[in-house]
Amino acid sequence: MKTAVLHQTHVSLAQPTRQAMTPQATTEPVAVRWALTGLALFFLGVFLLVPLLAVFTQALAKGLSVYWTALSEPTAWSAIKLTLLVALISVPLNLVFGVSAAWAIAKFDFRGKNLLLTLIDLPFSVSPVIAGLIYVLLFGMPGWFGPWLAEHDVKIIFAVPGIVLATTFVTFPFVARELIPLMQAQGSEEEEAALVLGASGWQTFWRVTLPNVKWGLLYGVILSNARAMGEFGAVSVVSGHIRGLTNTIPLHVEILYNEYNFTAAFAAASLLALLALVTLVLKTLVEGHLQPSH
User: Fold this and answer.
1) What is the mean pLDDT of the chain?
2) Confidence category of residue 6, pLDDT binned at 50, 70, 90
3) Which residues contact 247 (CB under 8 A, 6 or more apart)?
4) Residue 155 to residues 146, 170, 275: CA-CA distances in angstroms?
5) The predicted structure's pLDDT at residue 290
6) Which letter does DSSP use for residue 153 in this model?
7) Who wins on pLDDT, 199 or 290?
8) pTM for this one?
9) pLDDT in tens, 220-254
């Protein structure tokens, strides 16, 4: 009995000591916290907020009438329409590929699985300029298929198809890379249960797999769309910079800036800045649904 009392007394005396030591071990001093917070806010302001404010300030420097004129003139409107067209084509292609690749990698074992994962990451490691050059070497006049395409009057390089191909290449990992870890974490128990109950493959996909990954899918689509609309390097190589025909918004901004038409350049750039802000808001909302519940 005496030993038990001494043990209980020892435990009661040790617990406050541990509780008192815990904050010291896990919490930084106030000065350090303020310094780190101030440093983070400084970099955030210098590298993000100030450039963002500068874009809108320069775009609206001569008034709203000049701003709207810069955005509504024919070449600017052509660049806007082409940017939207490329995104409307490339993003659905990325969606189909991303879902198919993620489903195959997460749910099945097959030869070449690691190779497929490596190829999905390829656009992250290859410069967009190199990606554009690859398509020029394949479909340009001196390229492998160039003479055949010219003979049949098919234009890929310096035309919309080349821009779509280059944009699709640099953006296709986003959907797949969001879905693969999500599907792997969820496992395949629900799909197996659906199959046991008599559901077909397509029924299992539409009613079980897709609802479980809908927020991750939307997250990947948002990132893919933002990259598609803002892509510069690969599109610059394959577009030919034909004003009014093959210039997307980023290329249009470059041309206007090189011509010292700063107001029009920043007006067009403000559209991409607005897209970035909208993407950031949507990304934050979707991330809230992706967080695991506790």
Assistant:
1) 84
2) very low
3) 75, 78, 79, 82, 239, 241, 255
4) 9, 21, 30
5) 65
6) T
7) 199
8) 0.80
9) 898 899 899 989 999 999 998 888 889 999 999 99
Which two three-digit tokens encode residue 52?
């963002």
226's tokens = 């933002």
Residue that has been written with the tokens 């792997």 in this structure:
184
How many CA atoms does the CB half-sphere of 87 hold within 13 Å?
20
Residue 95 near residue 176 (C-beta atoms within 8 A): no
> Are 98 and 123 a contacting pair, CB within 8 Å?
no
